[in-house]
Amino acid sequence: MAEARPLDALNKARDKKVIIDLKNGRQYIGLLKAFDIHINVVLDDVEERIDGEVKRKVGTAFIRGDTIIMISPA
Amino acid sequence: MAEARPLDALNKARDKKVIIDLKNGRQYIGLLKAFDIHINVVLDDVEERIDGEVKRKVGTAFIRGDTIIMISPA
Amino acid sequence: MAEARPLDALNKARDKKVIIDLKNGRQYIGLLKAFDIHINVVLDDVEERIDGEVKRKVGTAFIRGDTIIMISPA
Amino acid sequence: MAEARPLDALNKARDKKVIIDLKNGRQYIGLLKAFDIHINVVLDDVEERIDGEVKRKVGTAFIRGDTIIMISPA
Amino acid sequence: MAEARPLDALNKARDKKVIIDLKNGRQYIGLLKAFDIHINVVLDDVEERIDGEVKRKVGTAFIRGDTIIMISPA
Amino acid sequence: MAEARPLDALNKARDKKVIIDLKNGRQYIGLLKAFDIHINVVLDDVEERIDGEVKRKVGTAFIRGDTIIMISPA
Amino acid sequence: MAEARPLDALNKARDKKVIIDLKNGRQYIGLLKAFDIHINVVLDDVEERIDGEVKRKVGTAFIRGDTIIMISPA
């Protein structure tokens, strides 16, 4: 039986709402539309939260993988 | 059906106005003219914003990918 | 006799409860479901602890490898 | 039609005066003589500016790419 | 005669007690069970020391190589 | 006509006196004896300067490339 | 005539006493026994110095290359 790989978990989260925690403390919440092996990510319907408060809303966001700590379901 | 890749989202944003958030807190707003797999980016008609204020305007800017956090439509 | 490799230790920890210490001081405790050579990791039934206190619980978490210091049994 | 690549923009700037913004806040202004895929750069007739003030002038400077944020026309 | 390589020194330290100094100032003391070319390391019977004081004991620890400064015999 | 590459500029500086600016603010002044594609560098007759003051003199110094910001003629 | 490469200088320093300056400000003085292309280094008869004071002595030390700024003769 094939063993689970981390990117499988991201694949299951496609088109679902996720929270992305960045190294600078910010969070981005949105629909996971795309990702690659560098963990570059595209979200749709995105909220940016700083200290838990919504600061910005954007239709789509490309987030560079090396700034990401964690991706979890919203 | 092929799955979406993050660079497809950047490709759709070509010649459109984008906001780029850098790790140092600055923002660059301009027309996305080019990008590569390192997320090196070229913008035209660029405004540099620090704390929301326009600090500089340049005709074109090459931005090194490893300084970038997020790219979103302006 | 083959010599032990670090990823063998992670392999033995599959489906077991682990603590992951991150560079930003946070800890994530959960069941180790997947990992890869970059030490990208997926945990299930995850608790986030800051200064020893539980701050958040999530069903599953993808953690980017380059933010990780240590993985040990919980 | 071939799509634009970021290094094309640097190529057009050869022998022209550019400003390079570094991660440490300094700026180098000079003629762009050479660059490579790591964005290592060589400038001629270089001024180093800290907080907008000229601090040093050198005939030529090799600048390591990973210290660079942005390159724009001077 | 073949010249010595750094990983040979780690190889000789297998199953021996070592001190690992991390970039965040912490030390991990334990038996060196495994390592790879990234200097990812597995220790057994591990003590975590902060400012010289034992803070935690774990049966086994996977330590990501890029957090390590030095490995020396304990 | 072949285009100039950044390492050509370093090549012309061989056996000449250069100043190397490091990310930690220190400067090393000496004769450029060797370099490689990582910009690892060897200097001879080296002065270390901190805040413009000579702090140390060494016969030869190997400097790791990823600590270097700029190399210019002394 | 072949041009000098930086690792040649390290090779000449084998079995000789060197000072290694790390990014965290510490110095390690010892006999250079081994190194590789990542500048991972093994020293024997090692003194650790912080602010010029000897803090620790170890028989042998593996030092990870990416923490090193400079290697020079002691």
Structural features:
5 strands, SH3 type barrels, globular, 74 residues
Summary of the model, kept short:
With 74 residues, chain A is mainly beta.
> Strand order, biggest sheet of chain A?
4-3-2-1-5
Query: What class would the helix/strand composition of chain A place it in?
Result: mainly beta
Share of helical residues of chain A: under 10%
Strand content of chain A: over 45%
Annotated CATH architecture of chain A: Roll
What is the CATH class of chain A? Answer: Mainly Beta
> Treating each run of at least 4 consecutive H or I residues as one helix, how many helices of chain A?
1
Which segments of chain A are poorly predicted (pLDDT under 50) over 5 or more consecutive residues?
Answer: none
Number of domains of chain A: 1
Described by the principal axes of the CA atoms, the overall outline of chain A is globular
Q: Tell me about the largest β-sheet of chain A.
A: 5 strands, antiparallel
